[in-house]
Amino acid sequence: MASAEPVPQPQETPIEAAAVEAGEEKEEASGAAAAKLDADDLKYIKHPLQNRWALWFFKNDKTKTWAANLRCVSTFDTVEDFWALYNHIQVASRLQSGCDYSLFKDGVEPMWEDPFNKTGGRWLINIQKQQRHSDLDRFWLETLLCLIGEAFEEDSDEVCGAVINVRSKGDKIAIWTHDCKNSEAVIRIGRKFKERLNLPPKFVIGYQAHTDTMSKSGSTTKNRFSV
């Protein structure tokens, strides 16, 4: 019995072979293009913050009202936009005496009378004049990072914002909270604030209610709490 001859396999024509090769090259090119597109997209992905924030600047021009001296510089709600702003403004230690920076949640103005602030108070740190060039900028940046990074965790909703006052006799940094009667949250915020600034245990910071500051008869306000 004669053995069966092998069935001839179809041979690719030169044109078909070229088409297959071109298709493979196209697929590889498409994959490379997609990978490049993904890489390019990653360059523009911004990291959102939990809240939108507004940076305010106050310049003490005695020819204008207090409100006229206060202006909103910019708002931001991503990590990248925060650093873009921070890296393009004057650091606090180089501000003229009488100037302030304030960072508050968008929609809240840095004044006692604002509805979100008026029932609250502030944790206040007094910084000696000789500390201005060694500690002021570091303390202020860490305060900003506490705010935008929601460092106060479950108490972050109580935080309104922060203010830095640059003055000839000494500077001040304060974190403002919403409700001075929410004592447990206020104290936790103060302890975390002190911890983040790496202040020594013997360094005491005080919390003052805005109503007490507005009605004070002398130059100082009595602390409601201290840590």
From TrEMBL:
GO terms for biological process: regulation of translation. The keyword RNA-binding applies. Pfam families: IF4E. Keywords: Initiation factor, Protein biosynthesis, RNA-binding, Translation regulation. The keyword Chloroplast does not apply. Residues 1-32 are annotated as: Disordered. GO terms for cellular component: eukaryotic translation initiation factor 4F complex. GO terms for molecular function: RNA 7-methylguanosine cap binding; translation initiation factor activity. Belongs to the eukaryotic initiation factor 4E family. This is Eukaryotic translation initiation factor 4E-1A-like.
